[in-house]
Amino acid sequence: MTKESIVQQLSPVGEEEIPVLPIEIMVEILSRLPIKALCKFRCVSKPWLSLISDPLLAKSHLKKTIRNDLLYYQRKRVIISSYNLYSLEYESIGKDGRFDENLVALELDYPLKDKPNGLAEFLPLKEDDEFAVIMNQDLQFCEIERNWVDILGSCNGLVCISPYEDTLYLFNPSTRESRRIPDTPSGLPANGYCVFGFGFDFVNDDYKVVRLGCGTVSVYSLRTDSWRMVCHFPYYDNVRKSGVLLNGAIHWMTCYGDGADLKCVVAAFSLEKEVFLEMLAPNIVKYSFEFVLGVLNGCLCVLHNHHQMHDDFWVMTEYGVGESWTKLTLSLSYNCMKPLCLVQNGEALLQVDGKLLLYNLENDSYRYLVVDGIPAEDGFDANTYLETLVSPNSFCWT
Length: 398
Hints:
Mean pLDDT: 84
Structural class: alpha+beta
CATH superfamily of the largest domain: Kelch-type beta propeller
Low-confidence stretches: 119-127, 130-144
Domain F-box: 15-65
Distance between the termini: 20 Å
Protein name: F-box domain-containing protein
Shape: globular
Organism: Hibiscus trionum
Number of strands: 26
Helix content: 10-25%
InterPro entries: F-box-assoc_dom_typ1, F-box-assoc_interact_dom, F-box-like_dom_sf, F-box_dom, Gal_Oxase/kelch_b-propeller, SCF_F-box_component
CATH class of the largest domain: Mainly Beta
Strand order of the largest sheet: 4-2-1-26
Strand content: 35-45%
Radius of gyration: 23 Å
Number of helices: 7
Number of domains: 2
C-alpha cells in the first residue's frame, strides 16, 4: 500500500473542506503518542493498522524517544522475571520524592507463559487409581507452576528471553509481539553451557543475538532469520553471564594466558564488524570469574560476583580507556549487584541481592523499594526496556 493510498483511505468521506494531512505530518504526530494509545488506534481501520505497523513509524517513534529526555523517562520500563514476567513504570520510581508509595508491577503476557513444568509426566497415573487421585492433587500446583524466564538482553524495546530450556524469543513487552529464534543448526556446536548477548547493529540495520559456547561464537541475524558461526572464542570458555550491550558491542569479562601470564580483559564483540576488541580490566581483577559487568548511565561497570560481601565497584568513565576505571565505595555491602538505570532525580536504581533499591551517589544514602505483585520470597532478575513499536517480525527478508 502506497503513502497516497493510505492518506486517501484515512480522509473523511464527503468532507473535502477538511484538509488532508501529508503522511510525513501524520507520522510526526503519531510518533509523539504513547504505545498504549497507538495499539488501540490499530483497531480503527485497516489503513490505520497499516500506518501504525509501518517500520518507518516505529523508527520515527524510537528516535523521538531516545532524543527527548521527557519522552525517554515516560517510555522507560523495568522488566522483572520471577517465574513470570512483570513490567514496572520507570517514570514513577523516585519521582517528586514519592518513596512512601509502593510500586505496582504489571503482569505481562509472553510466549510459553502457561507451559507447565512437566513434573507430572514422570508418573504414569490413571484416573481410576486412588493413589493417582492423591498424587494428582499434590502435583496440581507443580503442573501449573511456570518455568523461570531468563532475560538475556534488551535493545530498542525488544527483549531477548528464554521462557523454556533451549528456547529463545525476541519479545516486545509493549505490543506483545514475539518471534521465536530458530534452534541452533546441526552444523554448529550445540552441546555444553552457552551464554548470550543481544543488541542492534546500527550500520547494517539488524538485530543480532550472539551465542558463546563450546569455544565458538555464533550470531543470529533477525534480517536473515538464521544462525551462522563467526569465529572461535579467543579467550577461556569460562563465561557464565549474559553479555552487556553498550556502544554497539556485547561485553564479557574473560581472560587468557596461564600462570603469571594470566590476563583478565573486557572482551567487546562488535555487532557491526563481528570481531572482538579488548579493554583493560581494573587492576583489582585477578580472576575473571569473580567479576561481572554492568552498565550505569552509559558507563561500563565491573562488580564483584564470587559470593562474598563487598561494598565497592568500578566505573569506566571514558569508554575504551582502561586508565579511566574509577572505584566507587558504597555505604552498603552486597553479595550480588546489578545496576539498572538512573531515575529522574539522578539516583541509581540497583538490583541488590534480590531486592530493588535507590542509591544516591552524591550523599551515599539508599532506600529499598517495595514492589507489589511480585513473589519476593523466590528472588528475581531485572532489566530495563523502552516502550516502542519495533516489531520482531518486520525485519526479516526471508
